[in-house]
Design a protein that fits this description.
The protein has 90 residues and is mainly alpha-helical. The protein has one helix and no strands. It starts with 22 loop residues before the first helix and ends in a 19-residue tail after the last helix.
Length: 90
């Protein structure tokens, strides 16, 4: 995307022109909305992928912490409890 007008020329209106949109203007707006929708879909996919990877990392870190505590002979419940589950839907 190239900026706020997304490559569409900005033509100042004159008093003689009709203020209503024509088909070309609606088609241009629809095209811009389609591009925005596509970008938002891509961002949502990336966000979902990152969320899944972070959940995997969190679980891996929990497992590693428990293994270290077991090796040291500590009770895992005595240590700092970080069983916080992130919920991205809020």
């Amino acid at each position: 995307m190239s900026g706020p007008n997304m490559g569409m020329p900005v033509v100042p209106s004159t008093e003689d022109e009709d203020d209503s949109f024509g088909e070309a203007e609606y088609a241009a707006i629809n095209s811009m909305l389609d591009q925005i929708n596509s970008c938002l879909d891509h961002l949502e996919e990336q966000n979902d992928h990152l969320h899944a990877r972070l959940q995997e990392l969190l679980e891996s870190n929990r497992q590693t912490r428990l293994e270290f505590q077991q090796q040291l002979g500590e009770d895992p419940d005595d240590d700092y409890d970080c069983d916080y589950d992130y919920d991205a839907s809020t």
